[in-house]
Amino acid sequence: MTAVGLDRIVLAQKRISSHIRRTPLSVSDTLSTHCDFPIHLKLESHQSTGSFKLRGATNAVLSFDSKAKKAGLVTASTGNHGRALAHAAQAEGVRAVICMSALVPDNKVEAVKALGAEVRIVGYSQDDAQEEVERLVREEGLNQIPAFDHADVIAGQGTIGLEIAEACPDAELVLVPLSGGGLAAGIAAAIKGRLPQVRVIGVSMERGAAMYESLRAGRPVTVEELQTLADSLGGGIGLQNRYTFAMCRDLLDDVVLLTEEEIAEGIRHAFTAEGEVVEGAGAVGIAALLAQKVDVRGPTVVVVSGCNIDEELHNSILSSGSNAVSAAGGRGR
Ligand SMILES: *Cc1c(COP(=O)(O)O)cnc(C)c1O
Fold this sequence. Notes:
- InterPro entries: Ectoine_EutB, Ser/Thr_Dehydratase, Ser/Thr_deHydtase_PyrdxlP-BS, TrpB-like_PALP, TrpB-like_PALP_sf.
- Belongs to the serine/threonine dehydratase family.
- GO terms for molecular function: L-serine ammonia-lyase activity; pyridoxal phosphate binding; threonine deaminase activity.
- By secondary structure, the protein is of the alpha/beta class.
- It is built from 14 helices and 10 strands.
- The chain has helices spanning 6-16, 29-35, 53-63, 66-71, 80-92, 106-114, 126-140, 151-167, 182-194, 210-217, 244-251, 260-272, 284-290, 311-329, and strands at residues 25-27, 39-43, 73-76, 96-100, 118-121, 143-144, 173-177, 199-205, 254-258, 300-304.
- The structure holds pyridoxal-5'-phosphate.
- Pyridoxal-5'-phosphate (PLP) binds at residues 51, 53, 80, 147-148, 177-184, 232-233, 279, 281-282, 305-306.
- Pyridoxal-5'-phosphate is lined by residues 51, 53, 80, 147-148, 177-184, 232-233, 279, 281-282, 305-306.
């Protein structure tokens, strides 16, 4: 039995369903032809705030007692969780402080501010931002809602798995973008609970795949944080990881890694063939199919996790493929 099971995800679904969108599951004709099986896109890029993170954040905020809500909320975030938490907190009339590293793109910082949250820019890594969170918890009594390693957050993300199992019971494979593993752990717990025979495969970028390296090492390890087109997949899994490492280890059938070129191709395909604006992290499932990095044996669901990409970056990827990759994503820090 995993830390977050089906029961908890079903409860989360009841709690959040009137606060989030049930996102479309749409067949991709071109990918279906490419793979010889029906390929469905679960478009969490259509979720309010532009990513699935609203599900976990909303479940966590709604699960807080009134004392905790009064004290306010704090998190470290590469952007989408911060935005989601700001939205969820505003909906409940709760103060939210979002700590980010200086590597987070400007469009994400502005989006969080526009939702009424306080932003603190600290250091150059997710770990630096996390230290500030811990200081605010210690010294100012705020309550932390982490981006992935939290039972209510995982359960909230898992509601995507329930929707997939309902809408596509003949699925053979589900592809899930993988970073800290809240999304993959929640979806895998829901899918394996409802449809045990379905494979769930995580997809990360080669540049800084913390969960992949941790699974290989058999324990949480740190990896160097590198700039990547899949910026929402950056950051570590936490050396004190409580939930997502064990859940990903026990529930995922495999993890595959992608180059920056392959991710760019996924973003281009999403726009030109599917008419969808998708950020790098959101495009990795599509990219894995295009690059034939996974063995497709039946109907497949691809979780398209978010749409929050800088417009200029998106344009440059569309117009000048490999040049955009080396200009925007090829440089480490
Ligand atoms: C956060 C995020 C992910 C990864 O989710 P984890 O729970 O950290 O694995 C994937 N895609 C997008 C768009 C995200 O914002």
